[in-house]
């Protein structure tokens, strides 16, 4: 249920906070006063498209907040819990800057506009004043029947299954109808990929082979030089180690007093001797373990030669062969392949078609069962709205070809007068009749809705007199079960409300502002009198307004 709506710098509203309650709330005001601002702000909180014109002139941004109580909305709580946003309250915030940029939050966490729209479907149901125009469209009839039957989830899955079926069918058709050029390309790709598969060049292998080739090719020279270096370090009496030993011995045998002044030099000679010994051991170890491997060198040379040969064949650098192999393999896979692949795709198409048909049959059965009951419920509401002699039908007819939403089409038909055949709404219903049919359908839909918050935006357009009072009673009944916000110009409707919200526009110098407030009993009388008799309120008009409120209260 909608608990609160806070508006700041939106349209001509500077700042406003409204608290809402259960029951029916009538929203009234003169034309142009700003009733659309209230619903516009709510719509933006629910993810509608925004633009820079939404921001009040002279302000940097518009800030809108809607707070809902979701303790009884299991779908909304589940949606929030899945995203770790769970709370007993749900706070939606939308900010639109003067440049037209928009940001959104759910319970203080940034979100996308799509998230707002998705969550909003679980929070509130808005019925537009233009709904009767959509009654002329066949797809609207089918959607309303599906909503009444409670099979929206199955129909969504049906569309998804149809899409997968058609995608698989298109792939099969494309693969089966390949021309000579595609077949030739596939043959060439298969040969090239097989050649590269046989080469099996791994990533980084080329660089490793080139380094190994350089090492193997120069192995003999490296081995010879290492051995010569080892002999320079330690070879009989001519090596560096022998000469260092002689130098150390000479200094060691000096008299004690002189030996102290050369201690630093003697220490460095000792360190040099240790380093030379280590170097000699490393060089000798290298010479011992290193062997010439002409066979490995021949293999590496041959491998590199093959790699360069295939690279020239494909007009690429050797280091580009690995990437080329991946690209050609992907292209070959994308072109499809042999009869086995085609047969596998045929089986996939058949399986997806059969799955769609099974679900389509279930959906069709549900539609056929729900259609008579929907027609009966709508006809009952039409009788309540002064069209008791009308006959309403929900016709479900088979389609010639499968469609994403199933194998049926639905038509709403009406006979406004006894003895006349039922015909399509567009051909027989007047504007006023269409408004009442639309309202009857919306009331039936709302009575089946699991969402306790309903908004009716001037759905009583084209209705007047006693019928208007009946419309108010219908909306009051819906309000008894939850929360109904209705924008209306009819005093007969407003009088039925549990509470009354009045909107007026105030001009101050060069500034125009909108003021909104819940009316007390005297305020309701004056507003109903204005709606009945205009600007100048006579005592008779005020008395009539009191009588309307009294009659509404006594009836409930």
TrEMBL record:
Q: Which UniProt keywords apply?
A: ATP-binding, Coiled coil, DNA damage, DNA repair, Nucleotide-binding
Any signal peptide, and if so, which residues? Answer: none
One protein family per Pfam? SMC_N
What the entry lists under InterPro entries is as follows:
DNA_recomb/repair_RecN (IPR004604), P-loop_NTPase (IPR027417), RecF/RecN/SMC_N (IPR003395)
User: Which sequence ranges form a coiled-coil region, renumbered to this chain?
Assistant: 192-229, 262-289
Report domain RecF/RecN/SMC N-terminal positions. Answer: 2-509
- CDD domains recorded for this chain? ABC_RecN (cd03241)
Which protein family is named in the record? Belongs to the RecN family.
What does this gene product do? May be involved in recombinational repair of damaged DNA.
Record-given protein name: DNA repair protein RecN
